[in-house]
Design brief:
Layout lengths: L1 H58 L3 H12 L1
């Protein structure tokens, strides 16, 4: 009887340890995947913003042009 109890106790401890280790590793891999997707999304948004700004910039004069006009008027 005591041998059976010790055996079940050992199996329970080992099973719990394996389950916890698996849960920790699985959660860690999901977190890494999520962070990779997060940074990819940020990069995609940045590229989209830069594209949009470059398209807007073609239709408007730059600030340098504005400052040159101000300097010419002041001179």
């Amino acid at each position: 009887m005591p041998d059976t109890f010790a055996l079940f106790l050992a199996i329970g401890i080992i099973g719990t340890s394996v389950a916890l280790a698996t849960a920790i590793l699985f959660d860690d891999s999901r977190t890494k995947q999520r962070s990779i997707e997060h940074y990819r999304n940020l990069e995609r948004q940045r590229a989209h913003r830069m594209r949009r700004l470059s398209v807007k910039g073609e239709s408007r004069p730059s600030w340098d042009h504005y400052l040159d006009d101000k300097n010419q008027r002041a001179a």
